[in-house]
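lol ok so funny story. i was supposed to be doing the assay writeup but got distracted and ended up predicting the structure for this chain instead. priorities right. anyway since i did it might as well share w the group, maybe its usefull for someone
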Amino acid sequence: MKEKTALITGANKGIGFGIAKHLGLSGWKIIIGARHQKRAEEAIGQLKAIGTNVLGWVNMELRDPASVEQAAREMNEKYPDLSLLVNNAGIPGDMSVDSQHTEMDDIRETLEVNFIGTFSLTKLLMPLLERNHGRIVNVTVPSEISPYWHPLAYVASKAAQNAMMGVMATEFQQNNLPVEIFSVHPGPTTTDLNGNMSLPGFHDIETVGSKMAELINDGKKHQGEFIELYPIVKED
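and the output, tada:
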């Protein structure tokens, strides 16, 4: 029987924690990707207390190439059964300013974490995922610009991540590689990333985590798809 082992980046809190919880409760073995040992261990304690099978955690700082490389080495050595990578970790950038007042350092940092770091980790884990006929799931937002919410650094970094997904999916199909990649937009969700914003149309981590696990477990092929769990809509 194929092992169901998943690495979820940024799983010590927020949407990543919700995904880890509900994937774990559905039978997956969970590995948490996180930056801080204390937060990772606290999350592991909470997950184990509800019956989730957590194998451990891997330290990774996506803006640091050396950290990403070390994390990938550790994954290859300790978790050879990895069959699912959920690219969830990311930073918001400065969401309080418009494009004209966005600092270039903010653009660079957000791209380094959300796109370059994410792509680097994905690339380094590809041999393992290919061997295990695995899947890659990106937690992202639409590339199309919404008039209601459009922080430049964040949206640009996620648009690059969406392009990565589309290109890789096409190449997987063209080269008959046994790997699947798709992207999921959770929709407006109350998390630390947006300052725990809670407005009409927002969902909580529990709802989104459950829905994400349901999607991952649906048994269907989603190669190259961009799936919106809860689209951003204009409130009346």
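The radius of gyration is 17 Å. The longest helix spans residues 104-131.
back to the writeup now i swear
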